[in-house]
Amino acid sequence: MSVFRTPKKLKILFIATEAAPFARVGGLGSVMYSLPKALKDLGYDARVMIPRYLSINGNHHLKMEYEDLEVPTGNEEGPEHLICNVKRCDPGPDSEATVTTYFLENQEYYEQRANVYGYADDVVRWAVLSRGTLEFIRRNHNWTPDIIVSSDWQTALVPNYLKTIYAKDPVLSKIASVLTIHNLYYQAMFDHRYVSEMDFDDGHSAIPGFNNFRLEKLNFLRRGIMFADVFNTVSPNYAREIMTEDYGEMLDDLLRERRVFLSGILNGINYEVWDPRTNPHISFPFDVDHLDDRLKNKAILQERFGLPVKPEAFVVAIVSRLNPQKGLNLLFSIADTLLQELPMQLVVVGEGDSDFMSFFHNLEVRHPDQVATNLKFDTALPFLVFSGADIALVPSKFEPCGLTQMEAMRMGCIPIARKTGGLTDSVEDYDPDHGTGTGFVFERFDHNSLMITMVRAFENFRDKKKWRALQHRAMKQDFSWHNSAKKYVDLFSRAVEIHHSK
């Protein structure tokens, strides 16, 4: 047995490509805001490190933390080092930061880039971030973490670097590594489903230099899973699913091999933001005991989207990325029938693939009094939509966690969800005989199952007393980050113990 004892208050560094409020593209940015903050509220020293992009400017009052950091390139030819700076932003009255946040500066790879993602050399940019972070830690004596947490494939080289190049480093060798998989579908710059035998990365070769074309051939996520002390997904059910061939994205053998180091922890939502009593985007504040006020928001929603104001209408909302993962193609063959047969209104907010965008646009043209769309990203509309709609549609083909269903329930909007991933962990199917459940769940991924479930939801919607009780149960669910953060503390403590027992 190891004599090592886990520190009472661990020091944790999250390394990611985005973190709100500085840079947010998707759910990862929200997690990198809320989870470190929740850990800090529990008394832990949690910090974040991301690149300093062009959009992160002087308005954030950044201070220099480490100047002229030499980051080894590993190149066989060309410069041996890249020169970077590290700046920091601390919480305070003039700061948007909720935890200390570090920014890796490099003119070529970050400061000249307007976007977070989408560049041909992204694989180099993330390798620089991973190795630059480790060089900063080993050289900066002001603060050293006990744990480094990588997020998704972009920073999954960190555990690989730690176990190889830095295995004997007096500072870095003492640090445990954790990899959080937000979506197994994305593993590298290339599509891992179409890799020749010659280009297959088994994870055992040395990490190439930044200017070596072989760097683009690495499956970053595979390496992170292989080398991390522990790793987790963002829901318990998704952790089980990815060990199967159907969901394992060709890594199921490796995942089963390392299953003892795998955990699933459900993501949370920010209850300060998703509070129907105080959210500034909600016209009529309400809570679980004052749901009559919520009906006023339904009228506001209908007016905002140009739909007839009908309190009795069955308002179904889609707030989503419009792509195959989200399962909205199940509507292609049934949407017209549903709109013709049910007193239903459909509100769609989101953007994505052209075929989905065209489908919803044409549906709106065919049913102008029942369908309204906003086919572009909007940060404010989800609050308006979920505070007034009756149903949130989440028929995902696969879903590592999903936040939409939690956000909707918090606002009294009942989810229709497919039984997969984190939807399974967060939505309980409604049982009218026993008065239990928080939504309507279907299992088979086909349009008939979705249609039957939507009709079932509508029939129950007509019973206002039971529907009100269903809303009560949904709104009272606790998806706060406080609960998830405590489970992450257990995971981090386990990582430290495993690391120091080797």
Comma- or semicolon-separated keywords:
502 residues, Rossmann fold, 6-stranded parallel sheet, 15 strands, single chain, globular, Glycogen synthase, EC 2.4.1.21, 33% helix, Glyco_trans_1, 16% strand, 2 domains, 16 helices, 9-stranded mixed sheet, alpha/beta
Structure description:
The chain has 502 residues and is of the alpha/beta class. It folds into 2 domains: 11-268 and 482-501, Rossmann fold; 292-478, 3-Layer(aba) Sandwich (Rossmann fold), CATH 3.40.50. The chain has helices spanning 27-41, 107-111, 122-139, 157-163, 220-227, 236-241, 252-257, 292-304, 335-341, 354-366, 381-386, 404-410, 421-426, 447-461, 464-475, 481-501, and strands at 11-15, 45-51, 63-72, 81-89, 101-105, 147-151, 176-181, 230-233, 262-264, 314-319, 344-349, 371-374, 391-394, 414-418, 440-442. It has a 9-stranded mixed beta sheet with strand order 3-4-5-2-1-6-7-8-9, sandwiched between helices. α4 links the parallel β6 (147-151) and β7. α1 crosses α16 (481-501) and α3 (122-139) packs across α4 (157-163). The protein is globular, with a radius of gyration of 24 Å. The model has no long low-confidence stretch (mean pLDDT 95). Pathway: Glycan biosynthesis; glycogen biosynthesis. This is Glycogen synthase. One of its GO terms (molecular function) is alpha-1,4-glucan glucosyltransferase (ADP-glucose donor) activity. Belongs to the glycosyltransferase 1 family. Bacterial/plant glycogen synthase subfamily.
